[in-house]
Structures are given as C-alpha cells and as structure tokens.
Amino acid sequence: MPHPPVHSPTILCTVDVVLLTLTADGLQVALLVRDRAPHAGALALPGGFVRPTEDSGTRDAAARMLREKTGLHSPYLEQLATFSGPDRDPRGWSVSVVYYALVPPMAPDDGAPAAVEWHPVDRLPPLPFDHAEIVRQALARVRSKSQYSSLPVHLCGERFTLPQLKLVYEAVLGERVNQVSFRRRMDELGMLEPMVGETVGGAHRPAQVWRVKEAFRGELSLSERVLAGRD
Amino acid sequence: MPHPPVHSPTILCTVDVVLLTLTADGLQVALLVRDRAPHAGALALPGGFVRPTEDSGTRDAAARMLREKTGLHSPYLEQLATFSGPDRDPRGWSVSVVYYALVPPMAPDDGAPAAVEWHPVDRLPPLPFDHAEIVRQALARVRSKSQYSSLPVHLCGERFTLPQLKLVYEAVLGERVNQVSFRRRMDELGMLEPMVGETVGGAHRPAQVWRVKEAFRGELSLSERVLAGRD
DNA sequence: CTAATAGTGTCTATAAGACAGTATACT
DNA sequence: AGTATACTGTCTTATAGACACTATTAG
C-alpha cells in the first residue's frame, strides 16, 4: 500500500480558536498566556496540536481546546479557514485549522480558568504567529455573516429583549440599525418566540423577553435580505 | 524546545481541488482517474500530499496540483474548507485543505492532459473519500457567492457580451435573471469596460463585447445587493 | 420588410427608512 | 402628571421587476 512521503519533513497540524464575546466595551476575544515555547508567556489564541487518537476531526479538536483551555462549551463553533506555511510557526511547516466561536458574556467566575483574558478586538496586544491576521479574518466573517443571519443571537444569553438584541447587532456591525426594519425582519424570520408574561425593564416601559425557538437553536437562520439596515 | 507529540500517529496532510467550468451542459467538475491506491482507477478530485519542501502554503500546493495534474493555471483559486477525520482516507487520520477554482471552458486540446474528465455536477459518478460532499459544498459556495459578487465572470473567457454573462449567471444560479436589473447592476459595479467597436453576433443585432477592467482582474467585486434577481 | 436578438425608458410593485404616534412602566 | 423607553402605524423613498419600445443586424 503506497504511503505518504515519509521522507518529507513532518507537517505540524494544529487547531486555533477565535472565541468572541460581547461586553459593554465591545467585542472581546479570548487570549491565553502561553505556557510553553515558542512564545512562552505571550498572549495568544487558544490552540494546540490535533490528537488523532482523541479527536474525531478538527472541529472536535477545537471543541476540546475550548474545553481544556477555557472551560467553556460553545454551542456555536464554525470553521473559519486554514492557515499554513513554513514560517508561521518557528517549529516548522504548519497547518492550522481555525474555528471561531461566539458565547454570551459570562459572569466573572463562570467556570472559566483565570488564565482566560478577554481583550477588545480593536485594541489587541501584539499577537504571536499569524494570530493577528486570524483574528482580523474572524471579525470580518462575523460582521459579514451578521448582515444576513441570526449569528449575533449567540452573543446574547438564552433570553433577551429586542432592544438588547438590536444593541448586539449594532455593536457587531459597528453601525446604527433601523428599529422598525429590525423588528420587521426578526418577525419575518420567525425564529424568536416571546416568553409570554415575561418582561424586563427598569424605570420605564418594560420590554418583552424573547428566546430562540427550539427548532432554530444551534443553527443559524439565514435571510435573503439584509437583517440590519442602517437608520 | 518542545516538540509536537511524536508518539501520535502521523496526520496525513493533503490538498484537493474542485475545478469547475461551464459548458452548454451546465457546470462541470474536473475528475481524474486515480493512478494509485487507495481507490486506484476510480474518478476523484485532483489532489495530493502537501510537500513542505516545495509548497509555500496549501494554496501553493493546490496551484501545483492543478498544474501537475490538469496542466491548467486558474487565476481564481479560493479556499473552500478543510475536511478531516480518521475515516475519510483509509491510509489514516487525514486533513485535506480543499480549494475551488473556476476556469473558462477550454478548447478541446488546450494543454489539458487527456486524463482530465469533465463531469456535470448534477450527474456525478460515485466518488471516493468524502469527495461527493466536498463537491456539494463547493457548489453551494459558488452559487452563494454568485448572488452578490462577480464570481461568474471567471467562467467566461477574457471577452464576453452581457447576454453571455447573463446566461452564465443563470446557469450557475439555476434560475432566470432579470435583464434590466442585471445590466443596471453590472453598470453600477463599474467593473466592466466595453471593447469599443467590438461586437459579436450572428444573424441579428450584434452585442457589445466587454472585459473586466484591469483594476478588477484577479479579484472579485462584491455587491451590497443581490446581483441577479429573478425575472 | 421580417425576424430575431440587443439594449433602453418607464411604470409598477415591493421593501426599507423616517417619523410620529400610542403604550406602559417608574417616580 | 412627567418622563423615558417600548412598540406600532403609516408615509416617503429607494430599489427591483415587468413590459413595452427602439436599435441593429441578416436574409
């Protein structure tokens, strides 16, 4: 049986994850202090080697990386792209399959190891490898997909109000969203259901609480049209 | 210096290419007869092992694969996704970074080795590995991107008429395109320039010949809106 | 002149945005 | 009652599609 070119130098096969959340300070990306060379001590994306004995695929490896390194489970985990080349990792020719994940903002000690540092995506520290470029592409993807899909709901908790969700879209897209159109679209998508009777709101008229319908949980709703048109 | 887990079984790192063209019989995908195990003799996507000593990245490997196996150079070559797992290749745990390419229909003996077989995408023979799924995803991507970008121009030759280009969009999208809207959009994109004086057309009014402007060649024009609305 | 395709002008339908109104809480 | 926010009704504007008209060629 013919075999791969064993005479060739080994290719390092890794997975990296761009884990994003949204706080009052905008989109944040999870960074970890690397505990080993190369770049020991530096802040970098969670990642590591694929383990053929454990992982059933790179997606599985990415989920494992999240679990082991951040203590998180993200229901939304999607492949971004694969980065490769002889120079991106000083250890040798490497291939990194990159995933991105979106999670709701966490309570301060919500099981996440203290090692996780959240950094605003527009004020990142210098990152090792090609991680800066990877984050840039992840952001572009998230912003692009948010135009015509329900992606941003993964940045909300399980229950949310439409004004809250609108703010999330605005934060991700970086521009104002038309209130009337936004509500029309969310209605047309048919993806949300009101928690009847449940409202939240402090000093003024309380807002209806919604959640994603069972059938739509875990996957995205795609729209033919732009979901969040400008105001 | 810490090293990758050398005790782990090797991960096979490969590249596959979904090469598409458009003929009167619709979208066609390039298949090659495999000359070695596994699946020797079967029709499969062009692909092979990444060669760290030769390739500067997986994109480069994909371009090499195209060149070596089909004799073609495709100006449009984009990463589709990466497929991985223990079972997709009988030789072991593998990662395949898949690219897709679009080329104009070729003259019968335009340098392509005889080994290249073009098959209509909607009537493919059984394919080995996970190549059927890969082709499916490539088609979905191409159709999706054609909605709002100039992608289909890569299926035309260097010069084309607007009626021809409209037919290409219709073939890719699988639905009729509104003539007036189509011309409006192509005009607004500002990507095409007329070859003044050049027209083609047989028995009736000849059509203006166009080409992609220098500045837009090699890259896509993206539109905020749907490029090819229904008729 | 006819036929057939290329290309345009313009009306209509649809969808998005603006804006102002009503609704409902807390003070 | 006042005020601030939630939500809605409706007018205006922008964009897409339908349709018919003109343009240009061959025969």
UniProtKB/TrEMBL annotation, chains A, B:
Q: What is this protein called?
A: 8-oxo-dGTP diphosphatase
Q: Which UniProt keywords apply?
A: Hydrolase
User: What CDD domains does this protein's entry cite?
Assistant: NUDIX_NadM_like (cd18873)
Q: What SUPFAM superfamilies does UniProt report for this protein, alphabetically?
A: Nudix, Winged helix' DNA-binding domain
EC number per UniProt: 3.6.1.55
Chain segments annotated as coiled-coil in the UniProt record: none
Domain Nudix hydrolase stretches: 1-142
Task: Please give the Pfam families that the UniProt record associates with this protein.
Answer: NUDIX, WHD_NrtR
The UniProt GO MF terms for this protein read: 8-oxo-7,8-dihydrodeoxyguanosine triphosphate pyrophosphatase activity
PROSITE patterns, alphabetized: NUDIX (PS51462)
Domain of life of the organism in this record? Bacteria
